[in-house]
Amino acid sequence: MSINTKPGPTILLTGASGVVGQAVLGQLTDHTVVCLTHNKPVSGPDVVSVRGDLTFPRFGLDRAAYESLANRVDVVVHCAAITAFSVDASRTNDLNVRGTETILAFAQRAKAPLHHVSTAFVTRQDLTREGKSSARPEVYLDSKRLAEQAIRDSGVAANIIRPSVVIGDSATGQISQFQGLHGIAGALLRNALPMLPLQPDTRIDFVPQDLLARVIVGLVQAGKTGGEYWVTGGDGAPSAGRIVELSIELARSFGLKLDTPRFVSQDMVDRLIRPVFIDSLPKGQRRRFDDMLAMTTLFHTAEPFSSTYDRIPGVELLSTTDLEHAFTASMRHYATVKNLIRLSEVAA
Predict the structure, then answer these.
(1) Which CATH number fits domain 10-347: 3.10.180.10, 3.10.580.10, 3.40.50.720, 3.10.20.310?
(2) Could you give the CA distance from residue 180 to residue 184 in angstroms, rounded to a whole number?
(3) Which residue from 141, 90, 146 is spatially nearest to 120, judged by alpha carbons?
(4) pTM surpassing 0.85?
């Protein structure tokens, strides 16, 4: 394995093909990056792909290759994780918990600081563990809490980074894979969401991927560890009512006319809507509904998240207006990719 050296430290990056990993990779221009990939290799200037499996000791590499890699890496950025709510607990824990333990062992061997991407929603301890839903966010959140604890217990020099929901680039809206919030807002744009299991004043906390990448790269460059950084909208997160307004405004700019969805309680969904309308749907449609319901459940918090990423040099807190612009950019990109703009032109 040949690794060219750039002025900055050599970084081992996991999850480079995912939403966060791709955004981070795009900002590591002054560093040599080794991407640990499970299937698809990652290419680019001064990027090396190493095929490995986080759920295996030494990533499944032979001892010589593992030692060679450890001797070359200066910093570890750990973005890989299962984030889907419908994946079973065994698979989720394999990657999110055991995978983090494997990364910790590597960081110890390499004597490298670790920057670990967790989630702000680890604070949600009150999610139900009963019911018919196929989407179980508590499984994902339990795994992230266990991973964080493993880091604290390890003695490895580390930072824990806790973003809320990640959306596309703040200017272009581009993203490698659409996420749960895209699905909800996309259903709004299609006029396929007659009701929304939220209250109008509920904060919808999200951050654009380029902000999160700047935070991670800023921490790498600062060389400081031992911190926990909340990368969230916090007090500036827009309300569910405002998100609906922005979606309607965007739809109008495409020539679409949307019906405003009715805001309903999750109790109403469980008692009335699910037994009558949802349980009889085909499996695929029922799963999409469950995914939406699980996502909206996360936003039911009494207090806003902390937001502390402005402690990083050169990074400022985004305002509500900034977040609203980022949301609109994401949904404009979504509508373009999904051909909603073309459909609106045909309808006109």
Answers:
(1) 3.40.50.720
(2) 7
(3) 141
(4) yes
- Supply φ then ψ for residue 283, to 5 degrees: -55, -45
Confidence band (pLDDT; 50, 70, 90) for 30?
confident
Structure tokens at 217: 């790269």
The radius of gyration of the chain from alpha carbons, rounded to an integer in Å, stands at 21
Question: What distances in angstroms separate CA 305 from CA 164, 301, 309, 347, one per listed residue?
Answer: 9, 8, 12, 41
Is 143 buried (19+), middle (13-18) or exposed (0-12) by CB count in 10 A? buried
166-222 tens-digit pLDDT: 999 999 999 999 988 898 888 888 888 888 889 999 999 999 999 999 999 999 999
CA dihedral for 153, 154, 158, 164, sign (positive or negative): negative
β-pairing verdict for 75-78 and 165-167: unpaired
- Tell me which residue has tokens 């800023």: 218
Model confidence pLDDT, tens digit, residues 281-296: 566 666 667 777 778 8
Residues 190 and 259: their CA atoms lie apart, in Å, by 10
Q: Which two tokens stand for residue 162?
A: 């806790």
Which strands make up the sheet holding 10-14, listed edge to edge? 47-51, 32-37, 10-14, 75-78, 114-117, 158-163, 228-231
Q: Where are the domains of the chain?
A: 10-347
User: Which alpha helices (H) appear in 63-169, and where do they start and end?
Assistant: 63-72, 89-93, 99-110, 137-154
How far is 56 from 62, CA to CA, in rounded Å?
Answer: 11
Question: 194 near 148, Cβ under 8 Å?
Answer: no
A 10 A CB-CB count for 50 gives 18
